[in-house]
Design goal:
This protein has helices at residues 17-22, 37-45, 93-105, 134-156, and strands at residues 12-15, 23-33, 48-49, 54-58, 61-65, 68-69, 87-90, 109-118, 121-131. By secondary structure, it is of the alpha+beta class. The protein has one domain: Small Protein B, Chain: A (Beta Barrel).
């Protein structure tokens, strides 16, 4: 019996680039996400936006708020599809406790930075983050542009 070849490359569905621009990302966690059937089908098509989403911690649970999953046209007629519904994140008790402590005591924010496939499951990468000031954002942009220019010069030389 032949083994299946592993896919090379990234298995990410969507990456929240705005979170990297707006926050200093410190610690990452992997969380499962509770989805309905039509949402999984839409994710296979890549119809999701994480731009304005965040993670809300309440009542001992974590919720993904503001992520928009656009329903497919071929979705069933008897299912009422709400693209912006709150989705529950599945984390271990210790991870939830750590997130609660960090967000309540130190004033950090919890944001979803990425959704990706792990075997046949959809996982969310969430990060504890600290907000950037405007001058931090400008410094990051300036450093990125300098690195691009440096690569151009080294490539030609």
């Amino acid at each position: 019996m032949a083994k299946k070849a592993k896919k090379s490359g990234d298995s990410s569905i969507v990456v929240n680039k705005k979170a990297r621009h707006d926050y200093h990302l410190e610690e990452t966690f992997e969380a499962g996400i509770e989805l309905s059937g039509w949402e999984v089908k839409s994710l296979r098509q890549g119809k999701i936006q994480l731009v304005d989403s965040y993670v809300l911690l309440k009542d001992g649970e974590a919720w993904l708020i503001g992520a928009q999953i656009t329903p497919l046209i071929s979705a069933s007629t008897h299912v009422i599809a709400d693209p912006r519904r709150d989705r529950k994140l599945l984390l271990h008790r210790r991870e939830l406790a750590k997130l609660f402590v960090e967000t309540q005591q130190t004033g950090k924010t919890c944001v979803c930075t990425k959704l990706y496939w792990k075997k046949h499951l959809i996982k969310a990468q969430i990060c504890l983050a600290k907000g950037k000031k405007e001058f931090d954002k400008r410094a990051t942009t300036k450093e990125r542009e300098w690195n691009i220019e440096k690569q151009r010069v080294l490539g030609r030389g």
